[in-house]
Amino acid sequence: MSAFQDEQDLNEHFSDNPEFDTWCDQIMTNLFEMNGHLSTLQQFIKTLQKCSRQGNVRSKMVENLDTKSVAHIESVSKLLKVVNDLVHKISAIEEPTLNSAQLISREKLVRDVKFSVQGFQTAQKSYTQVSKAINDQAKASLSEERNLGIAADSNTVALEGELGLATTTQDLRGHQQRQEAVIERESINNEEFAYQQNLIRERDREISQIESGIVELNGIFQDLSNIVQEQGHMVDNIESNIYSVANSTQTAAKELSKALSSQRHANKWCIYMLLVVSFMLLIMVLIVAT
């Protein structure tokens, strides 16, 4: 047991790949930052889903949340590319050059990355779904606004007709005030209409980019799954060897305990025999003496 422990300690101090620990530290740092962005993104998505259910899709809050969500998705994507490259670096290290602790650490780290990638996949799909729903609602709302605009145009035509029938100065002034009010409303609605249309087009473009990223992410996830499966066999063998050594040690300890018990039992019988022989010799000496 002591020899096994000494060998493990030596492996921990001497390694043929000094860059392994550096790469692992970089993976953990980037993974921590990536999970932070992912957690915030998930909260934003929940809020967007709530706004969609309530029909509140054209507010400034939704616009800000949408912009920030895209920014977090882009940040996670960039970090994921760095992490993926590092994972391939540590996975390319040959097994004999790493000790047992490093092999187990590598396998666990790759599993953590895979878990985060899976969470990012889910978040991206959820975002595209809610973003499409918001866009559909915004398009329907704009369509309604456009119909209202057409109705406003009809009112303008009616006012122009009234102008031809106006006969007094008071009628002309009343008509002018109503016409200015209609023109003012049309101007504001047209600006808002154009602004919302631009937001919809921008959101459509972002959705297309994110869906392209999902396809790329699926490839990364599948690649990580293969690495986890391959390294899992290595770790299983290591753990099997560790358990085998532990079982052998326990078995040896039991056998030693049995041997010691047998030895103590044998020694006890030797003492009994020695006492009997001594007693018999004493009797014989006494008989001879008499």
From TrEMBL:
Gene Ontology cellular-component terms listed: endomembrane system; SNARE complex
PROSITE patterns on file: SYNTAXIN, T_SNARE
Range of residues in the leader sequence: none
GO aspect biological process, one term? intracellular protein transport
> What domain of life does the UniProt record list for this protein's source?
Eukaryota
Q: Tell me the InterPro entries matching this sequence.
A: SNARE, Syntaxin, Syntaxin/epimorphin_CS, Syntaxin_N, T_SNARE_dom
Keywords attached to this entry = Membrane, Transmembrane, Transmembrane helix
TM ranges = 269-289
Report domain T-SNARE coiled-coil homology positions.
197-259
Listed GO MF terms? SNAP receptor activity; SNARE binding
Please report which protein family the annotation says this sequence is part of.
Answer: Belongs to the syntaxin family.
Q: What is this protein called?
A: LAMI_0E13080g1_1
Q: Which organism is it from?
A: Lachancea mirantina
